Hints:
Layout: E1 13-19, H1 25-38, E2 43-47, H2 53-64, H3 72-96, E3 100-104, H4 107-116, H5 122-133, E4 140-145, H6 148-158, H7 172-188, E5 193-197, H8 202-219
Parallel strand pairs: 1-3, 1-4, 2-3, 4-5
The structure holds thymidine-5'-diphosphate.
Amino acid sequence: xxxxxxxxxxxxxxxxxxxxxxxxxxxxxxxxxxxxxxxxxxxxxxxxxxxxxxxxxxxxxxxxxxxxxxxxxxxxxxxxxxxxxxxxxxxxxxxxxxxxxxxxxxxxxxxxxxxxxxxxxxxxxxxxxxxxxxxxxxxxxxxxxxxxxxxxxxxxxxxxxxxxxxxxxxxxxxxxxxxxxxxxxxxxxxxxxxxxxxxxxxxxxxxxxxxxxxxxxxxxxxxxxxxxxxxx
Length: 232
Ligand code: TYD
């Protein structure tokens, strides 16, 4: 993180979930949120693109493919614009109250989808990220890993009555390249990233994720008690 960015001063824990299509991120986020809430923690579940009213408006433009014809730079800037709104309106305020924030996709999605498979230069992506996140970096990123073919089959099943989105429509080789790109990020940033084998049963994956996150929660000395309605 460069020196120009704001220092993230907060007492929360920021966990992002990444991976290809059909990796089961949303199910696992829900399960982790439930487990943490049952233990009395204040948990915010959110997603990208979206998560704030401004970012949700941009989400539709991106996922419908409406911005595709204007090129990958335009799309990358729109993802970054949505991310900045989401960070400033939702994520930073929640972390400042000491909450645990679980976010479905974040900066690594831009690195992989727009950077690696969109062929955008890494410097361009990193410059956008710096502006978008302004010091708010994930404390931990869980990369749910599985072969692209299996993920796509799952995503198709899930979307039986729903047309695939702009990014799901791409070739299998593109999805496989994304998987490799995620694994490379994990290799380059081992202190932040954990690769989770997502080919296993839902329960096994949930147990591993809880075992990874629980010590971080403990280490930070979380003592919050949640309100009745946030208990899952
Ligand atoms: P979404 O329907 O939210 O689903 P999922 O996370 O289950 O795949 O789709 C978001 C899509 O947007 C997904 O194909 C990845 C893509 N994306 C990017 O290309 N760049 C980004 O920065 C983000 C956050 C998402």
